[in-house]
Amino acid sequence: MHSLFMIKKQKVIWKIDTNQEQQLKRKWNKISLKRSEGFSITFQKDRELIDRIKRETLLHNKNNITRTAAYLAYYKSHPEVHWSFLAHMVSRNAGYFMTDLKGEFLPELIEPSVIQELYFTLEKGNSMIFHDAYPQLLLYEESKRRKCSLFHLCKFFNVSTFMEGVWEMFFDGDRTPLLPSAQIINEQNHIEKNLIRTEQFQKLQHQLSFKLQEWLHLSQILFPVLPINKSIGKTMQGFESAKKRIVLGQNLYVMLFQRNNFRPVYHFACNNRHTGSRSDYDSEVFGASKSQTCHSPKEKLSFFKTKKSQKLYSPNLEEVWDNTYHGPFHSSDWFSISKNIISQIRLVSKPSPQIRVAYWAGLHQIETVYLLKQYFRLIKKNRGL
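RE: above sequence
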């Protein structure tokens, strides 16, 4: 498996083969027929399992911190389910984005109402994906324990026919990248209808502040490796496009599970509890406590460091945001057998600039805009405008 990832050039490094495609289509047809005919629970232990999974999902879907921890705990118990560790690392970044909105720079650059909307969007997407994915993970866990497939219960959690068929193949022994590739596709399609295509998100997308955030390259997905200058990641662009989000997810998966990358990132994840503060991975640059307010704007950043041991404010998530779980969510109903989805079941690897350079370029860029705005305010004040 790891040998698949030793590719330097941009290319498709794995895709579903003809045999897998035929198997999946047969399973999808069978599942669709069964669902159309109706299906009821006849065993008490299955009713109890459904109730337990719903309770556990709700318990861990409290906020970004609890979700992120749940993904990692699951991966430790079931390391064959690669997606759960990818989900943990991406969810960490969602937490960083949430706290950036209350951090050093953005509150001075983005209107408070838009900051609130951006947070709700990030939080809703994070919780929607967990609400859909975590029951799948728990069904697999219980299937392993009972030594029989329980994925026919997917419909009681509004899990797509698409994923039910893929999980059946995984449980039957398919250990190709079919499952993680399918999970990336499923979750991005899941949020497409109930988040990305909503009127609320479309309005947010056209806000000047949202464009500013994208222009400043504040959307790096960072996988910390200590020392921090060895970190890896990708820049996220075109969030409104499902295809671009899927390609990004495939790239991140390939990057994360490369032989040389996995161990140090996993070591970081296991040894650094996620708080949402960027000080989790870089305590020399970021601090979870606010420093004393300076009356005149001053540059804090230097080349890959801060000046005179100053720190950028990056708070703990639970200290600046209340729990605002949006669920339960409606089914996305995104999948149909006739939908041309097979071609997307693949893994791609694309070269990208070193994330450390892009990350620091983004920090410098946002500080420059922040300082310009502060200077402009001072000039207006001094001139009595």
